[in-house]
Amino acid sequence: MPDDVTEGQAERTAAEKQAVAAKPAATDAKPAAEAKPAATDAKPVAEAKPAAEAKPAAAKPAKAAPPPDPRVVAATAVAEQIKASLERALGPGVVDETGAFKDVPQLVIASGKWLAAARFLRDEPEHAYTYVELFAGTDYKDKGYIEVALYVQSVANNRFINLKVRTPRDDAKLDSLTGLFPGVNWEEREVYDLLGVVFTGHPDLRRIMMWEGWNGYPLRKDYSPFENIPVKGGNGS
Amino acid sequence: MCALRSEEMILNVGPQHPSTHGVFRLVVTIDGEQIVDADPVVGYLHRGTEKLAEDLQYVQIIPYTDRLDYVASMLNNYALCHTVEYALDLEVPARAEYLRIIVMELQRVASHLLFLGTYLLDLGAMSPFLYAFQEREQIIMLFNEICGARLTYNYMRVGGVQWDAPPGWIEKVRDFTAQMQKKVPMYHQLVTGNEIFLNRVRGIGVISQEDGIAYAMSGINLRSTGFNWDLRKNRPYSIYDQFEWAVPVGKNGDCFDRYFIHLQEIEQSLNIVAQAVERVPDGPIIGKVPKLVRVPAGEYYRGIEGARGELGVYLVSDGKDKPYRLKLRRPSFVNLQILRKLLIGQSMANLIAILGAVDIVLGEVDA
């Protein structure tokens, strides 16, 4: 592992890390690596991770041996279809990943296109994903990002899909979907409150469960309930 | 022309106001009798269930779900167990499915009875409350017999249920169902045709179908707008497809429709229970489940039709015996968002009627 790898790069997946290890020259291409060379001292921790993650990555091909679930195959095909449609409308690079869990197709949207993709999928009659069922955030500390999942139903076409978007933990920021779906207003406030994702364009971004002045974001994986006792206190409103 | 000078005033409703049914605060700006703005403040009952669940094994989380919507705990138990079963592709024995259906639908009846009682109490009618609680008490006693608790049941397990029905329990349920089915017309006589009640609730707090969908509402709030969306029919789970029953929908989306659908759903739930008690098969009450449940890595979302709307569990697992992330989609929390829109422009007296009809439980809103 080259020693100019910064914390920002520790965010990438195990596969990417292996690629980086294979050709160290590629890391220089990342502006993040050059922007903060000072962070290189803190490396021992981050360096241990790729080694640990390499194992599950190697074990995966063995797991994939049983025949694939037909539901997953069908759902992945639907995800691919939606991806093609999205790319036709919004240009390439809208969808980072496609896949499926059980019977639910899944698309990982590029964070810059989150709002545009959601709007397209809501307004286009062939998609018509209008009814939001779930909006949830998850902190993937080891991968370095926070993932927001939106499960949305197309009532007209009777389809149910999962859209996801990822944002780096240290600068968690996403476009707000409140303009499209007023029903995610409080859900976004909850994700902001508990996971610290800032939703730009949200009309009323305040904490909702904890009070203003609470320290830290409780649902983050590195949050310790005993070290984060609030200091500022008091209910702001 | 000179209008009467008026001044805006800020009024705090709650957090300890009886008609908020818990610790819910509503900061209302009023101009005379008119509501100019309303800001719901929630979170007083936040216990961090989602965070706590990350340190618990799946079986250990079940009692925590009891405390979400504490007037419909059976349904909460089921939502969690069902998601884990879905993730594991687990077969549930037929007897367990029947026992689950019976307790879930009885729970829905109990929850709706509580709504009727307290809603009418909020509107100033005392006696329906006493009737409703009498019948609800019988259901609670039935639950007490089957699992030993009156409110926080902790009855379901991954793969089945914890306790078999004691001897004679099924017959008791059959008797209760028959007796309760006869009582529903009494509620209609007592309340539905009442002129004073109708004037309080007709055309008040109208939700349009577009708003219902855009605000991600679910359950009776959504169905009152005329939109037929019931997860028991639209995304079938358990054995609901083996029974004959209908989904009551409203027309106008007002408080009256929401009240009326509650009563109709009681009838439909009793209908399901009446069919189920006749067919309960013998057999095991819990499937073959490993002692330590490990959910394969991945993410799973399942929603069930709770008493108040879509009760969903979103589970992210990394293959361990504890969830990596557990998100609870609480219907009351999502449904409550529309409150501000419903209240603006209404008079203060309608506030209670509208808030009551949205039917929230604060344990669920705050999780």
In what range is the share of β-strand residues of chain A?
Answer: 15-25%
CATH superfamily of the largest domain in chain A: NADH:ubiquinone oxidoreductase Nqo5 subunit
Please report the first level of CATH classification, the CATH class of chain B.
Answer: Mainly Alpha
CATH topology of the largest domain in chain A: Beta Polymerase, domain 2
Helix content of chain B: 40-55%
**Largest interface, counted by CB within 8 Å of the partner chain's CB:** A-B, 33 and 39 residues
> How many β-strand stretches of chain B?
8
DSSP helical segment count of chain B? 15
Tell me the major beta sheet of chain A.
5 strands, mixed
What is the CATH level 1 assignment of the largest domain in chain A? Alpha Beta
| CATH architecture call of chain B | Orthogonal Bundle
User: Which whole number gives the mean pLDDT of chain A?
Assistant: 76
Brief digest:
The complex is a heterodimer of chains A (237) and B (367). Chain A is an alpha/beta fold.
Keywords:
heterodimer; A: 237 residues; alpha/beta; Beta Polymerase, domain 2; 2 domains; 5-stranded mixed β-sheet; two-stranded parallel sheet; disordered N terminus; disordered C terminus; B: 367 residues; alpha+beta; Cytochrome-c3 Hydrogenase, chain B; 3-stranded antiparallel β-sheet; 15 helices; 13% strand
Structure description:
The complex is a heterodimer of chains A (237) and B (367). Chain A has helices spanning 14-22, 31-35, 43-63, 70-90, 114-123, 185-195; strands at 95-101, 104-109, 131-140, 145-154, 159-168, 173-175, 198-200. The N and C termini of chain A lie far apart (50 Å). With 237 residues, chain A is an alpha/beta fold. In chain A, the strands form two sheets. Chain A has a five-stranded mixed β-sheet. A two-stranded parallel ribbon of chain A has the order 6-7. Chain A folds into two domains: 7-63, no CATH class; 70-200, Beta Polymerase, domain 2 (2-Layer Sandwich), CATH 3.30.460.80. The longest helix of chain A has 21 residues, at 43-63. Chain A contains six helices and seven strands; from the N terminus they run ααααββαββββαβ. Chain B has 367 residues and is of the alpha+beta class. Chain B has one domain (8-366): Cytochrome-c3 Hydrogenase, chain B, CATH 1.10.645.10. Chain B is 48% helix and 13% strand. Chain B has helices at 49-53, 58-66, 73-88, 94-122, 127-147, 169-192, 195-201, 209-214, 220-223, 231-234, 255-279, 331-335, 339-343, 348-358, 362-366, and strands at 8-13, 25-31, 34-41, 156-157, 160-161, 298-305, 310-317, 325-329. In chain B, strands 1-2-3 form a three-stranded antiparallel β-sheet. Chain B has a three-stranded antiparallel β-sheet with strand order 6-7-8. In chain B, α2 (58-66) runs antiparallel to α3 (73-88) and α5 (127-147) runs antiparallel to α6. Chain B is globular. Chain B starts with 7 loop residues before the first strand and ends with a helix. In chain B, 50% of the residues are buried. Chains A and B meet through β3 and α6 of A and α8, β6, β7 and β8 of B.
